[in-house]
């Protein structure tokens, strides 16, 4: 390793950034169980105090990717809707519902996620409430992707090396570098991604990191109302990521042919309430919940077929709901994963 962890701690405490290669080596050492908890904690806290930069995110993500359990896919376009979470809005699991609708519209989806850490309901929690067995073997995950068009990549199952840093992360009790890595480390190596974040400070960093990590096409979205999704309550700040780099654009409800609505009509106090709202959306019930799912699914569809435009993508998303295909997709995912129990 080019830099030792004690040297890295001193470097960061002095206010200096670490190179991507050095962070990759350091995180790799942690994930192999070869670093002491005290040193891991000191480095993570020093990075947090300084403020993590893109090179550090990229290096850490490369290490995580090297140590994760890969999920095979057929190649070509593959989408993820994993975001940072923790926006404090209390809304239902919008990106999870959007992932189901996107898959129903014919785009393969490898949804990466975990149980709730900073919110009332994580993607794993709501999928469990919807009847999906989230904790399946890798071959079941791969079969779901191949046959249903959507799979759930449960982070604890597919990132087993994270057990080596779990205890110290819980002991620290504050967000660290690792909290930003989930959206950067899809086990199925998704080529396309809608990544939601509620913080402007991380939006640009995550976009630049995705670019350096080679993501084919991504949209890092942040509702200007603080929602870590495409919002219908005002505008959504978007950083589009392509091989050429990053560019900033803005979406409004009108961009999708939809009417404005506020998040107060989309609240869910836990996974059961979130699942109930998603069931209503997939059953075709009109209203703000359906509209925001359509908007977020449209962002995903557009990302994979930008020539069609956002309004056409929103029409595709609505059609996937209205024809019952989204409901059938969820049922198929539930049936295939439950057969593994």
UniProtKB/TrEMBL annotation:
Amino-acid positions noted as binding anthranilate 2 in the UniProt annotation, renumbered to this chain: 169
Chain positions recorded as anthranilate 1 binding sites: 83, 114
Keyword Transferase: yes
Pathway, per record: Amino-acid biosynthesis; L-tryptophan biosynthesis; L-tryptophan from chorismate: step 2/5
Catalytic activity: N-(5-phospho-beta-D-ribosyl)anthranilate + diphosphate = 5-phospho-alpha-D-ribose 1-diphosphate + anthranilate
Top enzyme class: transferase
Binding locations of 5-phospho-alpha-D-ribose 1-diphosphate: 83, 86-87, 91, 93-96, 111-119, 123
Cofactor(s) it depends on: Mg(2+)
GO molecular function: anthranilate phosphoribosyltransferase activity; magnesium ion binding
Protein name: Anthranilate phosphoribosyltransferase
Native species: Rosistilla ulvae
